[in-house]
Specification:
The complex is a heterodimer. Chain A is built from no helices and nine strands. Chain A is mainly beta. Chain B is mainly beta. Chain B has no helices and eleven strands. Classes of the chains: A mainly beta, B mainly beta.
Amino acid sequence: DAKTTQPNSMESNEEEPVHLPCNHSTISGTDYIHWYRQLPSQGPEYVIHGLTSNVNNRMASLAIAEDRKSSTLILHRATLRDAAVYYCILRDVSQPKYIFGTGTRLKVLA
Amino acid sequence: DTGVSQNPRHKITKRGQNVTFRCDPISEHNRLYWYRQTLGQGPEFLTYFQNEAQLEKSRLLSDRFSAERPKGSFSTLEIQRTEQGDSAMYLCASSLGSRSLSGANVLTFGAGSRLTVL
């Protein structure tokens, strides 16, 4: 499984944008980039995914580098409820399972 | 639909005892996954089912672990002769598996079952 590299932790001020980086230099052409987050005492939840183009949904935006070797999850206005561990995962379209790393722990300051 | 349900939420047991966890997935989801998570780590894949067939098992799943999904609905994860190293959160997830090119196969997780082995 292709690996991702994320910072262990990040901090953000409330109501400011947050950019969470992810490096995946060994990504293959059939790997999708997925982001999940895990709030305290809960199971992970889906945030967003993409292949080549940037993606937007109600939760976040995903910016994918042109060479696909890195991506950035963008939370446009962080709230205290966004404090969580964010996981960047590569998953081949033919593989059903997700392999999680240790993720980035986001702390949001009031 | 109330999402993925896991029971019990917490289980404390003595070393050597057997424990069983149950997962009720989203009803129309044909795939079901079990993960294990220890403090400070991301979820580790254990096994997954497509309908009632167990299609993949991690090497983490020792002989003391067994998972079933009879009739392709709910699933159980049993741990026999528990050890202190089995203490962890056991997470269940389900998805509507698809071979489409959308790449989604979005997982919906339950809240987990926390096991403490004394």
